Amino acid sequence: MMKYNKRLLLLLVMVAMTIHEQHTVNCITVHNSYSIKHNVPHGASEHVTSSHTFDTKNPDPWGNKQYKEVTITKNVPVPVPIKYERHVAIPVRIPVPFAIHNKIPILVERKVPVYVEKPFPVQVDRPVPYALPIEVPVFHKVAVEVPKPYPVHIPKPYPVFIKKAVYVKQRPQAEGGQRVKKSPGKLSKTQRLRI
C-alpha cells in the first residue's frame, strides 16, 4: 500500500512538472494582429533587440519587422539550482508613416509672380548747417543763496489733573418718624401682577 502511494505521488509530481513546463513554454503567444500577451515568470528578464535579418523577402524598408527577444530564467526544484536561458523571437510592429495610409491628392495653390515697380533712388542734397543771424539767448543756471529754515518750538500737550466736584445727596428727614402700614385689602400693582 505504501509503495502504491509513493508511486502515485511520484506520478502526480511528474505530471505537475510537465504541465508547468508546458505552461511556461506556451506562455508567449503571437497573434496575427501582432498583439503580444505573455506572462513572464518570476525571476525572468526580457529586452528588445532590433533585427532586420528575419524578414528578407519584403523589399519595403517599412516592412521589416522588429523582434522582441525574451530571456526566460527558470528555477528547477533540484538540490543544485540549474538556470537555462531560452531566446524566443517575437515580431513587434513598427509604426508605419502616415503618408502610406493617406494617399489622397491635396490641391495646393501655386504662387503666381506679380511684377511690382521698385522705387529707384533719387539724389537729394543734404542740409548744411549755417550760423543764424539772430542771437539766441542761452540761460545759465545761477546759484542763489537761500536762508536756511530755523526750528520753531511747538509746545506739546501734557496731561493736567482736574479735580471734579463731589455732590452728596441728602434725604429729607420725615416728620414724626412713624411709618404708616398699608391695609391688607389694598395691594400694590406689582403684588397684583405676581398673583
TrEMBL record:
Residues 1-24 form the signal peptide. Keywords: Signal. The keyword Signal applies. Residues 179-195 have a biased composition (Basic residues). Residues 173-195 are annotated as: Disordered. PANTHER family: HL02234P-RELATED, LD27203P-RELATED. This is Cuticular protein (putative).
